Amino acid sequence: MTGWRFRTAIMFVFLTALLMFMGALASLWLSSGWYIGAGVMLMFSSIMCLISYYKSKEIALRMNHAKIIDERENPRLYRLVREVAQRAEVPMPEVGLCISPQPNAFATGRNPSHAAVVVTSSLLDLLPDDELRGVIAHEMSHIKNRDILIMSIASTLAMAISYVAHYLYWIAFVNSFDKQRDDDNSAIILMAVAIATQILVPIAAVIVQLGISRNREYLADETGAKITGSPLALARALRHLDETIGKINSPINYHTRTHNSGTTTAFNPADEYQSAHMWIANPLTGKRSIFSSLFSTHPPMEERIARLNALAYKLGLYS
């Protein structure tokens, strides 16, 4: 665990350093001291991390159109969440429901005392209790290991880097015209650096972010399986999700449902890349490309299932 914390710290330092590097470039292109932009980006990074720390749960719930429910609204879900929380020895989290045609689940919150476990309506319909318990245990593991805070901050920094890189490009683009008017050959170099920064820096940030996300998924699978004592149930749940999610990736699956507060449009997680890393199964499965393995928010499902089967064998659960 200590080794993983060290690697995570290095990743955060790298993301912050990317922001400071872009701030320094912007200052140089605006004829200011490089340290001014670097300092501004360091302050910006700190503010973004603080916002992510204190508001991550509210942002995640709103982004994913999830509603916090009480026990009367879904006794089955509440019972399973309470049971798993007791087994995991963490405080009872809030329970959320997302009206979606896609079966999935996520957890959010800065620490075990300020957390929520959210499942989609279709997940409740798809899985039996033992498999649903395994999914909830996976999410409870994220809470117990404080993965949500780590991944929320990483996602926030990666998103900030993408936006800053975009604006940095336009600063360089405008400055290159000034240099061209002055017959300065450095205009070509400036634009080349700007284009490379806009393309390569966000890619590097996303790869680091996804590296954090994928590794935490493996850990949550293992911890969740140990909480319930049933790796095979979680493996079956992942198999069902893998077989179902790829087929549900179209606006035709949207529908509406009326609540006390009014009508809420169904939400399809497959349309939202920026929150994809939060879910237990990659909601973008249906959008495969040549780069899908490199930029996947999750490790391969087959590998996750294989690891759970290996854990079951190690625990002597195979006859």
What labels describe this entry?
alpha+beta; 9 helices; 319 residues; two-stranded antiparallel ribbon; 6 strands
Describe the secondary-structure layout.
Layout: H1 2-29, H2 34-63, E1 66-69, H3 75-88, E2 94-98, E3 105-109, E4 115-120, H4 121-126, H5 129-144, H6 147-181, H7 186-228, H8 231-245, E5 256-259, E6 262-265, H9 301-314
Parallel strand pairs: 2-4
Antiparallel strand pairs: 1-2, 3-4, 5-6
- Summed up, the helix count is 9
Question: What distance lies between the first and last C-alpha atoms, to the nearest angstrom?
Answer: 32 Å
Compute the average pLDDT: 78
DSSP E strands, number: 6
Radius of gyration in whole Å, from Cα? 22 Å
Strand content: 5-15%
Briefly note the structural class of the backbone. alpha+beta
In the predicted model, the low-confidence regions spanning at least 5 consecutive residues are 250-259
Largest sheet data: 4 strands, mixed
* Strand order of the biggest β-sheet: 1-2-4-3
> What is the global morphology?
elongated
What are the secondary-structure elements, in order, as H or E? Answer: HHEHEEEHHHHHEEH
Helical amount? 55-70%
